[in-house]
């Protein structure tokens, strides 16, 4: 190593003991999991919380007039309180729990705010670095509703082009800016408060896709000033099948329901129904109850460690990885943003990304290969596909070194 070390207050070896899967080996090699950006591993606390719910406290929520249902409802609603605390929302009613992660949360906003609040002729502004989940719903809105879709450029360094953002906001027709907090390919972290100030000055609302950002940075939605913020449980060391939408209460109250069914109504007649206030208005049907318990446990887990300590550890990893990966011959790294997180997408001369990933797997290294649900961004940088290594709080400096050494050997193999 080159001397960079994780902060002394963060004991990564101790943290790794909380994740049962990390003790595994693959083909006689120690498992090196570098695909946390796709879905993070789960600590024992999350596993046990979900197991305990199923064994001793499970019932449907909000509807049963018996103690077990009341107990389950209390536990489920406690998740809303935990999330509100985690992101410093002003009111727990601003927290909507969705069924399929950030994807459903973004689609909820596209459908409900996009069709119910935005007017035809207004525009939605996204960027070239967006995950498909923050692009396709807006394309669908454009085609169905007549909303204009504007795209903010990304610089050659992989940073959001704020001059282009300002230019595309200038005419005051943008109703919503929806931007990734942190790119799932470039690792770029955007200036949240600056974007909000620019958008609000032109009358636009702002949503941040925090699928990556909420995992690596402490979030304070009141300080940021955004109107919406979304993230997903399974990247935050929690279960799959659960997402979070934060929306300012006064904005949520303007929005019609996303789906119809049970739990989102106050009265139903054969001709018309009355809808519940937020957040239940947006939570039709039986919710992901067990998954919500898992998210509460995941939030408790990372808060017990401390998001500031997690960020400091990961920034140490990022600095070390930048030094190691940029010194490798034949390796091209996408994005050199000044503010970035632990996501590294790269290509290797004379080797396809999937071949690289297969070879790395033989060394026990788990990485993602392909376009990472960001095809336009790959086209922007002129590459067909990349290998992506993404870090979690359990990633070590030694694993970064092992990955860099494996890349060097892969280049020799494919030469």
Total strands: the figure is 17
Provide the structure class: alpha/beta
For this structure, the quaternary state is: single chain
Rounded mean pLDDT is 95
Helix content: 25-40%
CATH architecture of the largest domain: 3-Layer(aba) Sandwich
Terminus-to-terminus distance: 26 Å
Largest sheet: 7 strands, mixed
**Weakly predicted, low-confidence segments:** 1-8
Using the alpha-carbon principal axes, give the shape: globular
CATH class of the largest domain: Alpha Beta
Number of helices: 15
Strand order of the largest sheet: 4-10-9-8-7-5-6
Domain module tally: 2
What is the name of the CATH superfamily of the largest domain? Answer: Type I PLP-dependent aspartate aminotransferase-like (Major domain)
CATH topology of the largest domain: Aspartate Aminotransferase, domain 2
Evaluate the radius of gyration: 22 Å
The amount of beta strand, in percent, is 15-25%
Keywords: Aminotransferase, Pyridoxal phosphate, Transferase
Domain Aminotransferase class V: 32-403
Function: Catalyzes the removal of elemental sulfur and selenium atoms from L-cysteine, L-cystine, L-selenocysteine, and L-selenocystine to produce L-alanine.
Family: Belongs to the class-V pyridoxal-phosphate-dependent aminotransferase family. Csd subfamily.
Provide structural commentary.
The chain has 415 residues and is of the alpha/beta class. It folds into two domains: 12-40 and 307-414, Aspartate Aminotransferase, domain 1 (Alpha-Beta Complex); 47-303, Type I PLP-dependent aspartate aminotransferase-like (Major domain) (Aspartate Aminotransferase, domain 2), CATH 3.40.640.10. 40% of the residues lie in helices and 16% in strands. The protein is built from 15 helices and 17 strands. The chain has helices spanning 12-16, 44-56, 67-87, 102-116, 136-145, 162-169, 192-201, 213-216, 221-224, 249-252, 289-305, 307-326, 353-362, 375-380, 397-414, and strands at residues 25-26, 29-30, 32-33, 95-98, 123-127, 148-152, 174-180, 205-209, 228-232, 243-247, 265-268, 273-275, 331-333, 343-348, 365-366, 368-370, 386-390. The radius of gyration is 22 Å and the shape is globular. The protein starts with 11 loop residues before the first helix and ends with a helix. Keywords: Aminotransferase, Pyridoxal phosphate, Transferase. Belongs to the class-V pyridoxal-phosphate-dependent aminotransferase family. Csd subfamily. This is Cysteine desulfurase.
């Amino acid at each position: 190593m080159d001397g960079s070390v994780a902060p002394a207050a963060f004991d990564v070896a101790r943290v790794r003991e909380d994740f049962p899967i990390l003790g595994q080996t693959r083909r006689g090699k120690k498992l090196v999991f570098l695909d946390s950006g796709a879905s993070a591993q789960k600590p024992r606390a999350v596993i046990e919380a979900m197991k305990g719910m199923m064994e001793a406290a499970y019932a449907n929520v909000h509807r049963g007039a018996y103690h077990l249902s009341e107990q389950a409802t209390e536990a489920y609603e406690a998740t809303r309180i935990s999330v509100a605390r985690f992101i410093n929302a002003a009111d727990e009613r601003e927290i909507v729990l969705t069924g399929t992660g950030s994807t459903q949360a973004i689609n909820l906003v596209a459908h409900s705010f996009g069709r119910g609040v935005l007017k035809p002729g207004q525009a939605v502004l996204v960027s070239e670095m967006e995950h498909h989940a923050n692009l396709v719903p807006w394309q669908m809105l454009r085609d169905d509703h007549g909303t204009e879709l504007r795209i903010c450029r990304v610089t050659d360094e992989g940073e959001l082009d704020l001059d282009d953002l300002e230019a595309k906001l200038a005419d005051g027709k943008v109703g919503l800016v929806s931007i990734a907090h942190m790119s799932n390919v470039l690792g770029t972290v955007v200036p949240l408060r600056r974007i909000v100030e620019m958008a609000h000055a032109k009358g636009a609302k702002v949503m941040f896709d925090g699928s990556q950002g909420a995992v690596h940075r402490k979030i304070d939605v009141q300080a940021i000033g955004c109107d919406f913020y979304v993230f997903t449980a399974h990247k935050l060391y929690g279960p799959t099948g659960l997402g979070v939408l934060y929306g300012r209460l006064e904005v949520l109250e303007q929005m019609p329901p996303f789906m119809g069914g049970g739990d989102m109504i106050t009265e139903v007649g054969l001709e018309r129904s009355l809808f519940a206030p937020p957040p239940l208005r947006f939570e039709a049907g039986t919710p992901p109850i067990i998954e919500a318990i898992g998210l509460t446990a995941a939030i408790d887990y990372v808060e017990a460690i401390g998001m500031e300590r997690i960020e400091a550890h990961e920034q140490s990893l990022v600095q070390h990885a930048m030094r190691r990966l940029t010194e490798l011959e034949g390796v091209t790294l996408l994005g050199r943003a000044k503010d970035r997180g632990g996501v590294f997408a790269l290509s290797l001369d004379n080797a396809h990304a999937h071949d690289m990933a297969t070879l790395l797997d033989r060394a026990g290294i788990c990485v993602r290969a392909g376009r990472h649900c960001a095809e336009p961004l790959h086209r922007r940088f002129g590459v067909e596909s990349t290998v992506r290594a993404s870090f979690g709080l359990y990633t070590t400096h030694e694993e970064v070194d092992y990955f860099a050494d494996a890349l060097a050997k892969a280049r020799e193999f494919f030469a």
